[in-house]
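User: I'm writing a tutorial on reading structure tokens. Could you give me a worked example: one chain, its sequence, then its tokens, then a sentence or two explaining what the tokens reveal?
Assistant: Sure. Here is the example chain.
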Amino acid sequence: MFFENYYLVYILGNLVSAYVMYKFIRIFYSKCKVKPTTEIAAYIGYFILITLTHVGLELPFIVLLANILLLFLITLLYEGDIKKSLLSILIIYFSLMSIEALFVLLTSTLQLNLLVPFQYESAFGVVVVRIASLGMVFAVKGFKNVKKEYPIPSAYWISLLFIPVGTVIMLFAVFMNTSLSRTIIFICIISAILINMFTFYLYDNISALLVDQMNKRISEEQNRYYEHQVEMMQATLNHMRTLRHDLKNRIAPLYPLAASGNTEELLKTISELSDLSEITKEYSKSGNTIFDSIINFKFQNAEAMNIEINVEINTPEALSIPTFDIAVIIGNLIDNALEATLKTHDRWIRISIVYDKGRLIIETVNSYDGIIKKEADQFVTRKHDQPNHGLGMKSIKNIVDRHEGYLNIDYDEHVFNTKVLMYL
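And here are its predicted structure tokens:
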């Protein structure tokens, strides 16, 4: 009867454990890539497989590997890179493993041998372990920065990874030493738990620091971007003043030529005036002054660079979105498209901006040389000064997220497509 009661408690405890794993993983991840029903099904599958593995095989080593593998696969349902998946699972599982070792020590004789079937059969201990695991979830749920989808540099990642792995190695070394007293083992387990909890704190603070640095670089990049815009606008104004001055000088002879009947010279001068008017070519004439001014300004040198431009805009003259946000999105999209298409011989850019039923859709399609550089599922700039470049897409993503929209990037060997959707 006791044997049956233990397994009943263990199965119910495993159900609680699956919930604990869900709460822990949700501390690290904010966005799930699958439907809620699929997410729930994944945790139910985890509960069933781990229970069957424990009851059927009863080997700690197999159960440990099964837990790590299944939890790793579950993390792939969320938005994040492989490094984050591995780090988060090892922190979670080894932290809970330390708690379980503590309460096994307190409620029974701890005999750790990964190749010997489980000998622990305390129903009370199982209940206490699950309650303690829930308590740890509530203790660390305040860490919010680990949710941020910012790739951690490899040096930081390896350092953080060694902490939970090191604590488990330490515990194995302690358990294998049969001469140690229960008091020493107890102190070692408590130390392992505290070290793993400190890892949560360290990971959270490193994430916060990296995000702050990224935001600072984005702000600096945006400031440089707008300083550059002001300089270019001033240059454009000076150019326009020169054009007006030249226009006055060209217009002045028209009346005397007409009065004298010198038709041939008159037509020649008028032809030169037509050529002069084409210098200020307009690519966008939608009536929306924000879109028109940004697009025309950005593409003012496109013809000289042999870039074919096609612009289609169907929006109201005014939209309920800050001008700054529009300038950042369109400005960066065009800058990226220009930079990419200039690396090819077949140079062209197509821009489409449509407003429909509260949705603003901005799409740029351009030619490029087929070379893509990505790191941790994020596009990386090909410029040499990487820390100060490549922030345009992050700026766009921040604004899109603020408007609860979507940013989609698609490409093949020759065409690069970026689409932004925002709800206004």
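What the tokens reveal: The chain is about 60% helix and 10% strand. The mean pLDDT is 79.
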